[in-house]
Amino acid sequence: MGIFDKIKGAIWGQAKAAEAAPAPSTTSATANPAPAPTPAPSATTAATSPATSAPSAPVDIASILDAAVKKSGQKLDWKHSIVDLMKALGMDASLSERKELAQELGYIGDAGDSAKMNMFLHKALLKKLADNGGKVPADLLD
Fold first, then answer.
1. Digit-coded pLDDT (tens) for 17-26
2. How far apart are CA 40 and CA 50, in angstroms?
């Protein structure tokens, strides 16, 4: 599994968890928390789909990452930093991991220039997430 797939899996997995979170408020879901609630077809579809396939409804990348930052307890700026985005998801954001991601995303620049590579990675990652069913704020795709 590549780095992009790990990132996507972490985001889509958190999206599925967020969709399932309202379930405990209903009596039937509390008795059997494994199945997705029936009133929300998109939650049912997402709960039965593998993390690597695109869900029927777009995954709100910003809300998932904002929640991940809050849960981490760190001051992370995922909207501008690939390192912070990866840290928010609990991933290894080391230079070697980012270089591997750069290869996956087609970076052809100097991998020794980490600042330039990081800017490419951030933009390319968000674009690829959007291309794979993620809803990314338009200002982050410019």
1. 777 665 444 4
2. 18
Strand partners, 60: 135
The whole-angstrom separation of Cα 113 and Cα 128 is: 22
The token pair that represents 49 in the structure block: 């789909």
Residue type, 24: P
Beta strands, E only, 10-112: 59-60
Q: Write down the residue that tokens 């020794």 correspond to.
A: 112
Q: What is the reported pTM? A: 0.73
Question: What own/partner pairs with CB < 8 Å and gap ≥ 24 does 98-105 have?
Answer: 100/2, 100/3, 101/2, 101/3, 101/4, 101/7, 101/125, 104/2, 104/3, 104/4, 105/4
Find the angle CA(30)-CA(32)-CA(33) to the nearest 5 degrees.
70
Contact 118, 82 (CB under 8 A): yes
Nearest Cα to 47, choosing from 60, 61, 33?
A: 33
